[in-house]
């Protein structure tokens, strides 16, 4: 009971940080682009976490290195592709579409009929939020958001696995380091980081702390205590936080139907969380 009471607030705090950081990151796109911003975020996060947690890399066994590597690749791909998506579509829309990854994971791992009903309600919300018939939807942006969702599911599964075989601080620090090493070649190819200024660097540092260093550490606390299925559907609150963040900080307005669709996703999250608390705590 006590551990799960800590895990759920940790997951919620992580989501607030991520979406606030995403809004700040999107302001950097005109100057650094999606690849440059993502690289700055992950690279600075890796440095911060490495020096704070000082993981003992030489003590890891083969299984720990394997899990950390897949976890790190999931982080890098999830973030890079998602930033490329929200460069083309609104933040709230991007996060809601991206949630197809955790939703599919929840469906696969479901063992109760009620879980399936909550997941289907979330699926309805995701289908409603995309403006399919308006001609205004950026199909490449939508595809990238779906693809980011696949790696979001990888991140959830591997985060849960790696947190069971090694210390959480070591896992997240090493995972971020591997993510940084993976994404740096893309930044070199892109070349946008050459345009960085001291002000942009400070803004990137804020993004790194809000979007990676702090939330990934909080996620480790949650993933260590919650089943992957529960964590997956709990994260359906992400679209609501994203839409509010986009509205407040980026002036990105959504239609009434799109807000209804987000409400469907949120209701699915609340319903499944209450159900799991009743039967699992």
From TrEMBL:
Q: How does it sit in the membrane?
A: Multi-pass membrane protein
What UniProt keywords are attached to this protein's entry?
Membrane, Transmembrane, Transmembrane helix
Transmembrane as a keyword of this entry, yes or no, is: yes
A Pfam short name = EamA
- Could you list the residue ranges that cross the membrane? 35-53, 65-85, 91-109, 116-133, 139-158, 170-188, 200-218, 230-250, 256-275
Ranges for domain EamA: 140-272
**Domain of life according to the entry:** Bacteria
Subcellular localization is given as: Membrane
Q: Which GO terms describe its cellular component?
A: membrane
Q: Which InterPro entries has this protein been placed in? A: AA-Vitamin_Transporters, EamA_dom, EmrE-like
Claim: Transmembrane helix is one of the keywords in the record: yes
Its family? Belongs to the EamA transporter family.
**Name of this chain's protein:** EamA family transporter
The organism named in the record is Sphingobacterium humi
């Amino acid at each position: 009971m006590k551990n799960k009471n800590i895990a759920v607030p940790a997951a919620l705090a992580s989501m607030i940080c991520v979406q606030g950081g995403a809004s700040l990151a999107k302001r950097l796109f005109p100057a650094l682009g999606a690849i440059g911003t993502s690289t700055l975020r992950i690279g600075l996060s890796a440095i911060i976490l490495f020096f704070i947690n000082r993981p003992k890399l030489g003590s890891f066994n083969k299984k720990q290195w394997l899990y950390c590597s897949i976890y790190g690749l999931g982080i890098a791909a999830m973030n890079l592709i998602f930033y490329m998506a929200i460069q083309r579509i609104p933040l709230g829309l991007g996060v809601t579409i991206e949630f197809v990854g955790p939703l599919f994971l929840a469906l696969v791992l479901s063992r109760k009929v009620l879980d399936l009903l909550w997941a289907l309600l979330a699926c309805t919300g995701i289908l409603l939020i995309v403006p399919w018939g308006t001609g205004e939807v950026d199909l490449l942006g939508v595809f990238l958001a779906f693809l980011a969702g696949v790696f979001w599911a990888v991140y959830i599964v591997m985060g849960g696995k790696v947190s069971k075989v090694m210390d959480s601080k070591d896992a997240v620090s090493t995972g971020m380091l591997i993510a940084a090493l993976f994404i740096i070649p893309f930044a070199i190819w892109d070349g946008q980081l050459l345009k960085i200024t001291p002000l942009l660097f400070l803004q990137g540092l804020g993004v790194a702390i809000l979007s990676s260093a702090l939330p990934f550490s909080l996620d480790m606390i949650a993933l260590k205590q919650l089943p992957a299925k529960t964590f997956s559907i709990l994260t359906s609150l992400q679209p609501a936080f994203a839409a509010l963040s986009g509205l407040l900080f980026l002036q990105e307005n959504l239609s009434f139907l799109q807000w209804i669709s987000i409400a469907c996703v949120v209701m699915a999250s609340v319903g499944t969380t209450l159900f799991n608390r009743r039967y699992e705590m």
